[in-house]
């Protein structure tokens, strides 16, 4: 690495581009709806499989088996958030609200970071962690990620890069 590359300032996410609490709440509602749809698809698939194999008591047994219900719900949540945030850095809710998950440098987080983020969503009362001053949940702070307005991020990074380029030319 050259001295010039070592001296290059790195973009840092700042609070002025954070997603609003209303955007975060809308993300939660939309993503919960999407997970509920996935849950019913999985349930229909499981019931059809049980029916095909001659098990006529699957639904009755499923209604009583809260461990299976929680296990499927957790698996769907982990699949949903990991798939969308690892592949696209955005869930369906974040597409709708024009927000995106980034690391402290405004870049797409790596897979391990997203896995930590997704696992932290399972912490009981995680939703209450948004009541703090920062407006960031535990799954954000523990994983060192940020949910930001995508357009504001793109514009701020563009300006940052332009200023850095002008500084090099001066």
Radius of gyration: 21 Å
Global morphology: elongated
Query: Termini, distance in Å?
Result: 21 Å
Number of strand segments:
2
Could you walk me through the main structural features you see in this protein, from its secondary elements to its overall organization?
The protein has helices at residues 3-7, 21-52, 58-64, 66-87, 92-97, 111-120, 138-143, 150-169; strands at residues 99-102, 146-149. The protein is mainly α. It has one domain. A two-stranded antiparallel sheet has the order 1-2. α2 packs across α4 (66-87) and α4 packs antiparallel against α6 (111-120).
Structure in a nutshell:
Helix content is 64%, strand content 5%.
Q: Which tags fit this structure?
A:
170 residues, mainly alpha, 8 helices
What order do the helices and strands come in, and which of them pair?
Blueprint: H1 3-7, H2 21-52, H3 58-64, H4 66-87, H5 92-97, E1 99-102, H6 111-120, H7 138-143, E2 146-149, H8 150-169
Antiparallel strand pairs: 1-2
Helix pairs in contact: 2-4, 4-6
